[in-house]
Amino acid sequence: MSGFDVDLFVIGGGSGGVRAARIAAGEHGARVALAEEYRMGGTCVIRGCVPKKLMVFASGFPAAMAEARAYGWQVTTGGFDWTAFRLKLDAELDRLEAAYRAGLKGAGVAVYNTRAVIEEPQLVRLATGERLRARHILVATGGRPFVPEFPGAEHAITSNEIFKLEALPGTALVVGGGFISCEFASILNGLGVKVTQYYRGTQVLRGFDDEARAHIGGQLVEAGVDLRLGADVAAIERRPGGLCVRGIDGGEAVFDAVVYATGRVPNTAGLGLEAAGVKLGRRGEILVDGWSQSSVPWLHAVGDVTDRINLTPVAIREGHAYADTVFGGTPRQPDHELVASAVFTQPCELGTVGLTEEEARAAGPVEIYATSFRPMRGAFAGRSHRVLMKLVVSAETRKVLGCHIVAPEAGEMIQMVAIAIKMGASKEDFDRTCAVHPSMAEELVTMRKPARAG
Length: 454
Ligand code: NDP
Hints:
Blueprint: E1 6-11, H1 15-27, E2 32-35, H2 42-47, H3 49-59, H4 61-70, H5 82-107, E3 110-112, E4 116-120, E5 123-126, E6 131-139, E7 143-145, H6 159-162, E8 171-175, H7 179-190, E9 194-199, H8 210-223, E10 226-229, E11 233-239, E12 242-247, E13 252-255, E14 257-260, E15 264-266, E16 299-301, H9 312-327, E17 341-343, E18 349-354, H10 357-363, E19 366-373, H11 376-380, E20 387-394, E21 400-407, H12 410-422, H13 427-431, E22 452-453
Parallel strand pairs: 1-2, 1-6, 2-3, 6-16, 8-9, 8-14, 9-10
Antiparallel strand pairs: 4-5, 5-6, 7-15, 11-12, 12-13, 17-18, 18-21, 19-20, 19-22, 20-21
The structure holds NADPH dihydro-nicotinamide-adenine-dinucleotide phosphate (NDP).
């Protein structure tokens, strides 16, 4: 006997942990246990991507109904029934959680519905007091919303609480300028909440392509979000009429709810990691190498807890590569190059892959192909939103280094473009691809002259 109760103990039942457990047990025959203290499925399924996307869909209907009227349909828009939507959402999340559990069971993974911590190297202690010796431990505990410290911070809610609200607020302040704040500003606005957004910088979505950022910022304003740039909260006080927010400029405004989306931090506190010799980074993330291995040989980590690229599909790939490497005899590292992503704002999403214009310019001479136009469907209905299609091309190699799309369904489009860019497509490869007409995406293969170069 090995002296170990299991070959692998996974802490955390989110995207990365569940994939690793299923592959290690189901495909490679390892004896695997997994502990999850909350609900199976993790942030993505329970309080992130999935419920968020369903809320994005819900928030798009008022505009869709107005569009339907413009197309000749007789449509009357009633009110939005948050309770009815939430009950349906809860049922859908229950269904998905059950599917995750069934997947683990089918693979032969022993599931513990409790918190697990590392008591000493290769020894896990459950909150029930039970102890298990594990040859390998995988930490996949994800992250949680970060709210900075300031007077009244306890009055703020985060994306965790939004899905559980008893009622939608009449007015809301969304703080932050990243993925989550832009998405929730857009969602709440679409659902009829009067939204103000404070972002401390000069334009939302820092780190994304500047032209695309400006497009999304402009769209938020046009859609009715009161976007205040260079604005931040100094204090929040609960008053009879609501939450009184004092800004750093000294001004005051009252809101029914204040939603903070100012980044996320890795969930590593209290896991016994440092005592077991596992090195953590400045933000509390587990430091890992390309194999997702920590500073000790028996512990690996995948997903947001490592603070690499904090996206579900990346965590899934990290978990899968880990299981294949350690238990499948097929060593491979997860590929973090050219990962596409989308920001699900409305009516246009931002889909992006590869280098921004600014990053590419810093690396060498570029040609920028860009076009902006009112898409056919919206233009016919008299809507004002504009689409942006942009290719960043290396002037030397002719390779397309980046693509940035601001458009309805940009998330769907960028997935396809990402394949071409991952294959190393050149601008000429795009050019010799015949257009699909009439579509928005056809602009990606019909842009003949660079908008600028240098
Ligand atoms: P982000 O890191 O994307 O954005 C955080 C925002 O909060 C930034 O605008 C930042 O400003 C601001 N901020 C940070 N600290 C403070 C502070 N102390 N006071 C005021 N503002 C502050 O984090 P999110 O929470 O939006 O999302 C977390 C991660 O989750 C994302 O990075 C992404 O990886 C993932 N995610 C992905 C989604 C998708 O794929 N569609 C959707 C949602 C989340 P500044 O720019 O000045 O630093």
